Amino acid sequence: MTSPHDMGVAELGRALDARALSSRELTQHLLARVDTRSSLGAFLHVDAEAALAAAAEADARRAAGEAGALLGVPLAHKDIFVTADAPTTAGSQMLAGYRSPFDATVVARLKAAGTVSLGKLNCDEFAMGSANENSAFGPVRNPWDPARVPGGSSGGSAAAVAARLVPAATGTDTGGSIRQPASFTGTTGIKPTYGVCSRYGMIAFASSLDQAGPIARSAEDCALLLSAMSGFDERDATSAQRPPQDFHAQMLAARPGASAARPLEGLRIGLPREFFPAGLAADVAGIVRAALAELETLGATLVDVSLPRTELSIPVYYIIAPAEASSNLSRFDGVKFGHRAAQYADLLDMYKRTRAEGFGPEVKRRIMIGTYVLSHGYYDAYYLQAQKLRRMIADDFQAAFAGCDLIAGPVAPSVAWKLGEQGDDPVKAYLADIFTLPASLAGLPGMSLPAGFGEHGMPVGLQLIGNYFAEGALLHAAHAFQQATDWHQRSPQ
Ligand code: GLN
Q1: Is the CB of 149 within 6 Å of ligand 1?
Q2: How many CB atoms lie within 10 A of CB 245?
Q3: Which fold has domain 4-254?
Q4: What is the pTM of this model?
Q5: Residue 433 CB less than 6 A away from ligand 1
Q6: Which of 157, 273, 332, 444 has the smallest CB count inside 10 Å?
Protein backbone atom coordinates (compact mmCIF):
# COMPACT_ATOMS: atom_id res chain seq x y z
CA MET A 1 0.00 0.00 0.00
CA THR A 2 1.20 3.57 -0.73
CA SER A 3 2.26 5.44 2.36
CA PRO A 4 -0.71 7.47 3.67
CA HIS A 5 1.18 10.75 3.27
CA ASP A 6 1.64 10.05 -0.43
CA MET A 7 -2.10 9.74 -0.97
CA GLY A 8 -4.21 12.62 -2.22
CA VAL A 9 -7.62 13.68 -0.98
CA ALA A 10 -9.67 11.48 -3.37
CA GLU A 11 -7.50 8.46 -2.71
CA LEU A 12 -7.67 8.97 1.06
CA GLY A 13 -11.45 9.25 0.86
CA ARG A 14 -11.56 5.86 -0.87
CA ALA A 15 -9.12 4.30 1.62
CA LEU A 16 -11.19 5.59 4.55
CA ASP A 17 -14.34 4.27 2.90
CA ALA A 18 -12.78 0.85 2.44
CA ARG A 19 -11.62 0.93 6.09
CA ALA A 20 -8.06 0.41 4.84
CA LEU A 21 -7.12 2.97 7.48
CA SER A 22 -8.87 5.17 10.01
CA SER A 23 -8.82 8.94 10.14
CA ARG A 24 -7.21 8.67 13.57
CA GLU A 25 -4.32 6.56 12.27
CA LEU A 26 -3.90 8.87 9.33
CA THR A 27 -3.98 11.97 11.50
CA GLN A 28 -1.46 10.48 13.89
CA HIS A 29 0.85 9.61 11.00
CA LEU A 30 0.69 13.13 9.54
CA LEU A 31 1.14 14.81 12.93
CA ALA A 32 4.37 12.83 13.39
CA ARG A 33 5.49 13.94 9.93
CA VAL A 34 4.69 17.58 10.70
CA ASP A 35 6.80 17.22 13.83
CA THR A 36 9.89 15.87 12.06
CA ARG A 37 9.68 18.54 9.37
CA SER A 38 9.22 21.59 11.55
CA SER A 39 12.39 23.17 10.07
CA LEU A 40 10.30 23.96 6.96
CA GLY A 41 8.46 26.59 9.00
CA ALA A 42 5.16 25.69 7.33
CA PHE A 43 3.05 25.48 10.48
CA LEU A 44 2.50 28.32 12.94
CA HIS A 45 0.25 26.29 15.19
CA VAL A 46 -0.37 22.53 15.52
CA ASP A 47 -3.09 21.21 17.77
CA ALA A 48 -2.58 17.45 17.92
CA GLU A 49 -5.20 16.86 20.58
CA ALA A 50 -7.98 18.67 18.74
CA ALA A 51 -6.99 17.01 15.45
CA LEU A 52 -7.10 13.54 16.96
CA ALA A 53 -10.47 14.25 18.56
CA ALA A 54 -11.87 15.48 15.22
CA ALA A 55 -10.45 12.39 13.50
CA ALA A 56 -12.08 10.09 16.06
CA GLU A 57 -15.36 11.88 15.47
CA ALA A 58 -15.03 11.43 11.70
CA ASP A 59 -14.32 7.73 12.22
CA ALA A 60 -17.45 7.46 14.38
CA ARG A 61 -19.54 9.22 11.70
CA ARG A 62 -18.27 6.78 9.07
CA ALA A 63 -18.93 3.82 11.35
CA ALA A 64 -22.49 5.11 11.76
CA GLY A 65 -22.96 4.86 8.00
CA GLU A 66 -22.19 8.41 6.91
CA ALA A 67 -20.27 8.80 3.67
CA GLY A 68 -18.52 11.85 2.23
CA ALA A 69 -15.46 12.39 0.10
CA LEU A 70 -13.86 14.59 2.75
CA LEU A 71 -15.02 12.86 5.91
CA GLY A 72 -11.91 12.25 8.02
CA VAL A 73 -9.48 13.82 5.52
CA PRO A 74 -6.79 15.92 7.24
CA LEU A 75 -5.85 19.38 6.05
CA ALA A 76 -4.62 22.68 7.46
CA HIS A 77 -5.64 26.30 7.09
CA LYS A 78 -3.72 29.36 6.05
CA ASP A 79 -3.44 31.52 9.16
CA ILE A 80 -5.43 34.27 7.48
CA PHE A 81 -8.71 32.41 8.19
CA VAL A 82 -10.02 33.00 11.67
CA THR A 83 -10.62 29.91 13.77
CA ALA A 84 -12.34 29.55 17.12
CA ASP A 85 -10.27 26.54 18.25
CA ALA A 86 -6.85 27.86 17.32
CA PRO A 87 -5.04 31.20 17.41
CA THR A 88 -5.06 33.37 14.27
CA THR A 89 -2.14 35.68 13.51
CA ALA A 90 -2.27 36.55 9.79
CA GLY A 91 1.51 36.22 10.03
CA SER A 92 1.62 39.43 12.06
CA GLN A 93 2.91 40.43 15.45
CA MET A 94 -0.19 42.61 15.55
CA LEU A 95 -2.32 39.53 16.14
CA ALA A 96 0.09 37.43 18.22
CA GLY A 97 -2.02 35.62 20.81
CA TYR A 98 -5.31 36.66 19.17
CA ARG A 99 -8.20 34.21 19.24
CA SER A 100 -11.32 34.68 17.19
CA PRO A 101 -14.73 33.96 18.72
CA PHE A 102 -15.87 32.28 15.46
CA ASP A 103 -14.73 30.24 12.45
CA ALA A 104 -14.39 31.72 8.96
CA THR A 105 -17.14 30.39 6.65
CA VAL A 106 -14.59 28.45 4.58
CA VAL A 107 -13.24 26.81 7.74
CA ALA A 108 -16.74 26.07 9.06
CA ARG A 109 -17.82 24.49 5.75
CA LEU A 110 -14.75 22.27 5.53
CA LYS A 111 -15.27 21.27 9.15
CA ALA A 112 -18.92 20.40 8.45
CA ALA A 113 -17.74 18.21 5.54
CA GLY A 114 -15.74 16.26 8.11
CA THR A 115 -12.20 17.44 7.38
CA VAL A 116 -9.71 17.30 10.22
CA SER A 117 -7.60 20.44 10.70
CA LEU A 118 -4.05 19.83 11.90
CA GLY A 119 -3.49 23.52 12.54
CA LYS A 120 -2.61 26.87 11.03
CA LEU A 121 -0.14 27.58 8.25
CA ASN A 122 2.45 30.31 7.93
CA CYS A 123 1.89 33.13 5.44
CA ASP A 124 3.14 36.58 4.56
CA GLU A 125 1.98 39.23 7.00
CA PHE A 126 -1.65 40.04 6.13
CA ALA A 127 -1.03 38.09 2.88
CA MET A 128 1.24 40.81 1.53
CA GLY A 129 4.12 39.20 -0.30
CA SER A 130 5.28 36.68 -2.86
CA ALA A 131 7.85 34.65 -0.93
CA ASN A 132 6.55 34.17 2.62
CA GLU A 133 9.53 36.20 3.78
CA ASN A 134 7.22 38.87 5.20
CA SER A 135 5.86 36.65 7.98
CA ALA A 136 6.57 37.98 11.47
CA PHE A 137 7.14 34.37 12.52
CA GLY A 138 9.94 33.50 10.15
CA PRO A 139 10.17 32.31 6.58
CA VAL A 140 8.91 29.07 5.06
CA ARG A 141 11.37 26.90 3.14
CA ASN A 142 10.65 25.28 -0.20
CA PRO A 143 10.60 21.47 0.23
CA TRP A 144 12.32 21.12 -3.17
CA ASP A 145 15.28 23.18 -1.95
CA PRO A 146 15.29 24.55 1.60
CA ALA A 147 17.51 27.43 0.48
CA ARG A 148 14.67 28.70 -1.72
CA VAL A 149 11.35 30.37 -0.99
CA PRO A 150 8.04 28.51 -1.40
CA GLY A 151 6.34 31.56 -2.91
CA GLY A 152 3.68 33.56 -1.16
CA SER A 153 1.62 34.67 0.41
CA SER A 154 0.19 31.14 0.92
CA GLY A 155 3.74 29.78 1.31
CA GLY A 156 3.00 27.60 4.34
CA SER A 157 0.01 26.03 2.56
CA ALA A 158 2.00 25.20 -0.57
CA ALA A 159 5.06 23.93 1.34
CA ALA A 160 2.93 21.72 3.62
CA VAL A 161 1.20 20.12 0.64
CA ALA A 162 4.43 19.71 -1.35
CA ALA A 163 6.22 18.15 1.64
CA ARG A 164 3.35 15.69 2.09
CA LEU A 165 2.50 17.01 5.56
CA VAL A 166 -1.15 17.36 4.55
CA PRO A 167 -2.93 16.26 1.37
CA ALA A 168 -4.47 19.71 0.98
CA ALA A 169 -4.62 23.17 2.49
CA THR A 170 -6.63 26.34 2.21
CA GLY A 171 -5.07 29.45 0.73
CA THR A 172 -6.08 32.91 -0.37
CA ASP A 173 -5.24 34.77 -3.54
CA THR A 174 -5.45 38.55 -3.87
CA GLY A 175 -2.91 38.94 -6.66
CA GLY A 176 -1.54 35.43 -7.08
CA SER A 177 -1.06 34.02 -3.59
CA ILE A 178 -2.54 30.60 -4.41
CA ARG A 179 -1.24 30.22 -7.97
CA GLN A 180 2.34 31.42 -7.51
CA PRO A 181 3.22 29.29 -4.44
CA ALA A 182 1.55 26.32 -6.17
CA SER A 183 3.82 26.92 -9.16
CA PHE A 184 6.91 27.27 -6.96
CA THR A 185 6.23 24.02 -5.06
CA GLY A 186 4.85 21.69 -7.73
CA THR A 187 1.34 21.66 -6.25
CA THR A 188 -2.05 22.37 -7.83
CA GLY A 189 -4.05 25.41 -6.75
CA ILE A 190 -7.18 27.19 -7.89
CA LYS A 191 -8.37 30.71 -7.22
CA PRO A 192 -12.06 30.72 -8.08
CA THR A 193 -14.07 33.58 -9.54
CA TYR A 194 -14.40 36.48 -7.11
CA GLY A 195 -17.50 35.75 -4.99
CA VAL A 196 -17.41 31.93 -5.21
CA CYS A 197 -15.93 31.48 -1.71
CA SER A 198 -17.10 33.54 1.21
CA ARG A 199 -14.69 36.13 2.59
CA TYR A 200 -16.39 36.06 5.99
CA GLY A 201 -13.69 35.44 8.58
CA MET A 202 -10.87 35.82 6.07
CA ILE A 203 -8.71 38.63 7.42
CA ALA A 204 -9.07 41.35 4.81
CA PHE A 205 -6.14 42.58 2.73
CA ALA A 206 -7.79 44.05 -0.40
CA SER A 207 -11.48 43.19 -0.21
CA SER A 208 -12.31 43.68 -3.89
CA LEU A 209 -9.62 41.14 -4.83
CA ASP A 210 -9.35 38.62 -1.95
CA GLN A 211 -10.55 35.10 -2.78
CA ALA A 212 -10.10 31.77 -1.00
CA GLY A 213 -9.23 28.51 -2.69
CA PRO A 214 -7.54 25.16 -2.18
CA ILE A 215 -3.96 24.04 -2.75
CA ALA A 216 -3.68 20.29 -3.20
CA ARG A 217 -1.86 17.69 -5.29
CA SER A 218 -4.27 17.44 -8.19
CA ALA A 219 -7.12 19.16 -9.97
CA GLU A 220 -9.39 16.37 -8.78
CA ASP A 221 -8.52 17.05 -5.14
CA CYS A 222 -9.00 20.79 -5.69
CA ALA A 223 -12.45 20.08 -7.16
CA LEU A 224 -13.48 18.10 -4.09
CA LEU A 225 -12.29 20.81 -1.71
CA LEU A 226 -13.70 23.71 -3.69
CA SER A 227 -17.15 22.08 -3.77
CA ALA A 228 -17.13 22.00 0.04
CA MET A 229 -15.62 25.45 0.69
CA SER A 230 -17.62 27.50 -1.81
CA GLY A 231 -21.20 28.69 -1.97
CA PHE A 232 -23.37 31.67 -1.17
CA ASP A 233 -22.95 33.22 2.26
CA GLU A 234 -25.24 36.00 3.41
CA ARG A 235 -22.47 37.22 5.73
CA ASP A 236 -20.38 38.32 2.74
CA ALA A 237 -22.06 41.05 0.71
CA THR A 238 -19.98 40.17 -2.37
CA SER A 239 -20.76 36.45 -2.22
CA ALA A 240 -22.20 35.14 -5.51
CA GLN A 241 -25.84 34.05 -5.25
CA ARG A 242 -25.73 30.63 -6.90
CA PRO A 243 -26.84 27.13 -5.98
CA PRO A 244 -24.15 24.84 -4.51
CA GLN A 245 -21.77 23.55 -7.20
CA ASP A 246 -20.43 20.04 -7.69
CA PHE A 247 -17.08 20.93 -9.20
CA HIS A 248 -16.01 17.30 -9.21
CA ALA A 249 -18.91 16.34 -11.47
CA GLN A 250 -18.16 19.37 -13.68
CA MET A 251 -14.52 18.28 -13.88
CA LEU A 252 -15.57 14.81 -15.07
CA ALA A 253 -18.24 15.92 -17.56
CA ALA A 254 -17.15 14.90 -21.07
CA ARG A 255 -16.98 17.55 -23.80
CA PRO A 256 -19.18 16.96 -26.84
CA GLY A 257 -17.13 15.22 -29.54
CA ALA A 258 -14.43 14.19 -27.07
CA SER A 259 -12.85 10.76 -26.99
CA ALA A 260 -10.68 8.99 -24.42
CA ALA A 261 -7.56 9.93 -26.36
CA ARG A 262 -8.73 13.47 -27.11
CA PRO A 263 -10.69 14.63 -24.03
CA LEU A 264 -10.12 18.30 -24.89
CA GLU A 265 -11.41 18.03 -28.48
CA GLY A 266 -12.72 21.40 -29.61
CA LEU A 267 -11.35 23.36 -26.63
CA ARG A 268 -9.78 26.65 -27.76
CA ILE A 269 -6.91 27.78 -25.56
CA GLY A 270 -5.86 31.40 -25.99
CA LEU A 271 -2.21 32.36 -25.62
CA PRO A 272 -1.86 36.07 -24.82
CA ARG A 273 1.27 37.25 -26.58
CA GLU A 274 2.00 39.52 -23.60
CA PHE A 275 2.38 36.38 -21.45
CA PHE A 276 5.44 35.30 -23.45
CA PRO A 277 7.70 38.37 -23.29
CA ALA A 278 11.41 38.39 -24.05
CA GLY A 279 12.20 38.60 -20.33
CA LEU A 280 10.52 35.27 -19.55
CA ALA A 281 13.11 32.78 -18.25
CA ALA A 282 13.99 30.23 -20.94
CA ASP A 283 13.31 27.23 -18.68
CA VAL A 284 9.82 28.51 -17.80
CA ALA A 285 9.04 29.34 -21.44
CA GLY A 286 10.15 25.88 -22.58
CA ILE A 287 8.10 24.07 -19.95
CA VAL A 288 4.98 26.11 -20.66
CA ARG A 289 5.37 25.48 -24.41
CA ALA A 290 5.74 21.73 -23.80
CA ALA A 291 2.63 21.73 -21.61
CA LEU A 292 0.71 23.55 -24.34
CA ALA A 293 1.84 20.94 -26.87
CA GLU A 294 0.51 18.26 -24.52
CA LEU A 295 -2.85 20.05 -24.32
CA GLU A 296 -2.87 20.11 -28.14
CA THR A 297 -2.26 16.36 -28.24
CA LEU A 298 -5.26 16.01 -25.94
CA GLY A 299 -7.42 17.74 -28.54
CA ALA A 300 -7.18 21.45 -27.68
CA THR A 301 -6.55 24.10 -30.32
CA LEU A 302 -4.11 26.91 -29.51
CA VAL A 303 -5.07 30.39 -30.66
CA ASP A 304 -3.29 33.72 -30.36
CA VAL A 305 -4.98 36.37 -28.25
CA SER A 306 -3.89 39.66 -26.73
CA LEU A 307 -4.17 41.17 -23.26
CA PRO A 308 -2.63 44.54 -24.15
CA ARG A 309 -2.68 45.99 -20.64
CA THR A 310 -0.86 43.10 -18.96
CA GLU A 311 2.10 45.29 -17.93
CA LEU A 312 -0.20 47.95 -16.53
CA SER A 313 -1.72 45.43 -14.16
CA ILE A 314 1.34 45.89 -11.92
CA PRO A 315 0.91 49.62 -11.18
CA VAL A 316 -2.88 49.22 -11.15
CA TYR A 317 -2.75 46.42 -8.58
CA TYR A 318 -0.08 48.12 -6.48
CA ILE A 319 -2.34 51.18 -6.19
CA ILE A 320 -5.68 49.46 -5.60
CA ALA A 321 -4.47 46.73 -3.21
CA PRO A 322 -2.57 49.12 -0.88
CA ALA A 323 -5.47 51.60 -1.01
CA GLU A 324 -7.86 48.94 0.23
CA ALA A 325 -5.29 47.61 2.70
CA SER A 326 -4.77 51.05 4.24
CA SER A 327 -8.49 51.19 4.93
CA ASN A 328 -8.89 47.56 6.06
CA LEU A 329 -5.91 47.67 8.41
CA SER A 330 -7.08 50.83 10.18
CA ARG A 331 -9.02 48.53 12.52
CA PHE A 332 -5.76 47.38 14.13
CA ASP A 333 -5.50 50.31 16.50
CA GLY A 334 -4.86 48.59 19.83
CA VAL A 335 -8.45 49.04 20.97
CA LYS A 336 -10.60 46.15 19.80
CA PHE A 337 -8.17 43.28 19.31
CA GLY A 338 -4.57 42.28 18.98
CA HIS A 339 -1.47 44.04 20.12
CA ARG A 340 -1.52 47.19 22.25
CA ALA A 341 1.60 49.14 23.15
CA ALA A 342 2.50 48.75 26.83
CA GLN A 343 3.45 52.40 27.35
CA TYR A 344 1.86 55.51 25.89
CA ALA A 345 1.08 59.10 26.78
CA ASP A 346 -2.44 59.54 25.36
CA LEU A 347 -4.85 57.92 22.91
CA LEU A 348 -3.11 59.18 19.77
CA ASP A 349 0.23 58.05 21.13
CA MET A 350 -1.28 54.63 21.90
CA TYR A 351 -2.44 54.26 18.26
CA LYS A 352 0.96 55.31 16.95
CA ARG A 353 3.02 53.06 19.17
CA THR A 354 0.69 50.09 18.73
CA ARG A 355 0.85 50.31 14.95
CA ALA A 356 4.59 51.04 14.87
CA GLU A 357 5.26 47.95 17.01
CA GLY A 358 2.64 45.61 15.55
CA PHE A 359 3.14 45.97 11.80
CA GLY A 360 6.16 44.77 9.83
CA PRO A 361 7.96 46.87 7.20
CA GLU A 362 6.06 45.66 4.10
CA VAL A 363 2.69 46.21 5.74
CA LYS A 364 3.74 49.72 6.80
CA ARG A 365 4.94 50.45 3.27
CA ARG A 366 1.57 49.44 1.82
CA ILE A 367 -0.42 51.41 4.38
CA MET A 368 1.62 54.50 3.51
CA ILE A 369 1.28 53.99 -0.27
CA GLY A 370 -2.44 53.30 0.12
CA THR A 371 -3.02 56.35 2.29
CA TYR A 372 -1.09 58.48 -0.20
CA VAL A 373 -3.03 57.35 -3.30
CA LEU A 374 -6.33 57.96 -1.52
CA SER A 375 -5.41 61.36 -0.18
CA HIS A 376 -6.97 64.62 -1.34
CA GLY A 377 -5.26 65.91 -4.45
CA TYR A 378 -3.81 62.53 -5.44
CA TYR A 379 -6.97 60.41 -5.46
CA ASP A 380 -7.93 61.30 -9.04
CA ALA A 381 -4.42 60.87 -10.37
CA TYR A 382 -3.81 57.46 -8.82
CA TYR A 383 -6.78 55.63 -7.35
CA LEU A 384 -9.42 56.77 -9.83
CA GLN A 385 -7.10 56.22 -12.77
CA ALA A 386 -6.25 52.73 -11.52
CA GLN A 387 -9.96 51.90 -11.21
CA LYS A 388 -10.54 52.93 -14.82
CA LEU A 389 -7.66 50.79 -16.01
CA ARG A 390 -8.92 47.87 -13.94
CA ARG A 391 -12.19 48.05 -15.89
CA MET A 392 -10.24 48.07 -19.18
CA ILE A 393 -8.16 45.07 -18.11
CA ALA A 394 -11.39 43.16 -17.41
CA ASP A 395 -12.75 44.24 -20.82
CA ASP A 396 -9.56 43.01 -22.52
CA PHE A 397 -10.24 39.55 -21.11
CA GLN A 398 -13.79 39.59 -22.50
CA ALA A 399 -12.43 40.51 -25.92
CA ALA A 400 -9.94 37.63 -25.68
CA PHE A 401 -12.63 35.17 -24.57
CA ALA A 402 -14.59 36.00 -27.74
CA GLY A 403 -12.03 33.83 -29.52
CA CYS A 404 -11.14 31.18 -26.94
CA ASP A 405 -12.52 29.15 -24.04
CA LEU A 406 -9.54 29.23 -21.67
CA ILE A 407 -6.37 31.29 -21.50
CA ALA A 408 -2.97 29.75 -20.75
CA GLY A 409 0.45 31.04 -19.87
CA PRO A 410 3.13 30.98 -17.20
CA VAL A 411 2.32 31.64 -13.54
CA ALA A 412 5.57 33.40 -12.70
CA PRO A 413 8.49 34.62 -14.81
CA SER A 414 11.01 32.31 -13.07
CA VAL A 415 11.36 29.39 -10.68
CA ALA A 416 11.45 30.02 -6.90
CA TRP A 417 14.30 32.30 -5.90
CA LYS A 418 16.66 31.95 -2.95
CA LEU A 419 15.72 33.20 0.50
CA GLY A 420 16.97 36.73 0.91
CA GLU A 421 17.90 37.00 -2.78
CA GLN A 422 15.63 39.97 -3.43
CA GLY A 423 17.22 41.94 -0.63
CA ASP A 424 15.15 44.93 0.36
CA ASP A 425 13.92 45.83 -3.11
CA PRO A 426 10.16 45.25 -2.93
CA VAL A 427 9.67 46.29 -6.56
CA LYS A 428 11.49 43.17 -7.77
CA ALA A 429 8.86 41.00 -6.12
CA TYR A 430 6.04 43.23 -7.39
CA LEU A 431 7.24 42.83 -10.99
CA ALA A 432 7.24 39.04 -10.67
CA ASP A 433 3.46 39.15 -10.10
CA ILE A 434 2.85 40.17 -13.73
CA PHE A 435 1.09 36.99 -14.90
CA THR A 436 -1.19 36.50 -11.90
CA LEU A 437 -2.39 40.08 -11.37
CA PRO A 438 -4.51 40.44 -14.54
CA ALA A 439 -6.96 37.64 -13.63
CA SER A 440 -7.14 38.95 -10.05
CA LEU A 441 -8.02 42.47 -11.20
CA ALA A 442 -10.68 41.06 -13.54
CA GLY A 443 -12.05 38.74 -10.81
CA LEU A 444 -11.55 35.70 -13.05
CA PRO A 445 -10.75 32.15 -11.93
CA GLY A 446 -7.22 30.94 -12.42
CA MET A 447 -5.22 27.89 -11.58
CA SER A 448 -1.66 26.63 -11.48
CA LEU A 449 -0.77 23.05 -12.27
CA PRO A 450 2.63 21.39 -12.20
CA ALA A 451 4.10 21.27 -15.71
CA GLY A 452 7.74 20.33 -15.25
CA PHE A 453 11.03 21.23 -13.63
CA GLY A 454 13.21 24.15 -14.58
CA GLU A 455 16.53 25.58 -13.43
CA HIS A 456 17.99 24.05 -10.26
CA GLY A 457 15.41 21.24 -10.52
CA MET A 458 12.67 23.56 -9.28
CA PRO A 459 8.99 23.06 -10.21
CA VAL A 460 7.25 25.21 -12.81
CA GLY A 461 3.49 25.65 -13.06
CA LEU A 462 1.22 26.23 -16.03
CA GLN A 463 -1.47 28.85 -15.49
CA LEU A 464 -4.97 28.37 -16.87
CA ILE A 465 -7.48 31.24 -16.66
CA GLY A 466 -11.20 30.83 -17.29
CA ASN A 467 -14.09 33.18 -17.82
CA TYR A 468 -16.38 34.05 -14.90
CA PHE A 469 -17.65 30.93 -13.08
CA ALA A 470 -15.82 28.61 -15.50
CA GLU A 471 -14.15 26.69 -12.66
CA GLY A 472 -15.63 23.47 -14.06
CA ALA A 473 -13.99 23.99 -17.46
CA LEU A 474 -10.67 24.91 -15.81
CA LEU A 475 -10.70 21.82 -13.62
CA HIS A 476 -11.74 19.65 -16.57
CA ALA A 477 -8.78 20.76 -18.69
CA ALA A 478 -6.38 20.51 -15.74
CA HIS A 479 -7.65 17.02 -14.91
CA ALA A 480 -7.22 15.87 -18.52
CA PHE A 481 -3.65 17.19 -18.44
CA GLN A 482 -2.95 15.39 -15.16
CA GLN A 483 -4.40 12.12 -16.48
CA ALA A 484 -1.82 12.30 -19.27
CA THR A 485 1.19 13.54 -17.28
CA ASP A 486 2.73 12.77 -13.90
CA TRP A 487 4.33 16.11 -12.94
CA HIS A 488 1.82 16.53 -10.13
CA GLN A 489 2.79 13.18 -8.65
CA ARG A 490 6.48 14.01 -8.21
CA SER A 491 7.52 14.70 -4.67
CA PRO A 492 10.65 16.27 -3.17
CA GLN A 493 13.17 14.01 -1.45
N1 GLN B 1 2.26 39.11 -4.30
C2 GLN B 1 1.08 39.90 -4.24
C3 GLN B 1 1.21 40.95 -3.15
O4 GLN B 1 2.22 40.99 -2.54
C5 GLN B 1 -0.14 39.05 -4.04
C6 GLN B 1 -0.41 38.66 -2.64
C7 GLN B 1 -1.69 37.91 -2.49
O8 GLN B 1 -2.26 37.41 -3.46
N9 GLN B 1 -2.19 37.85 -1.26
O10 GLN B 1 0.33 41.69 -2.90
Answers
A1: no
A2: 19
A3: Amidase signature (AS) enzymes (3.90.1300)
A4: 0.98
A5: yes
A6: 273
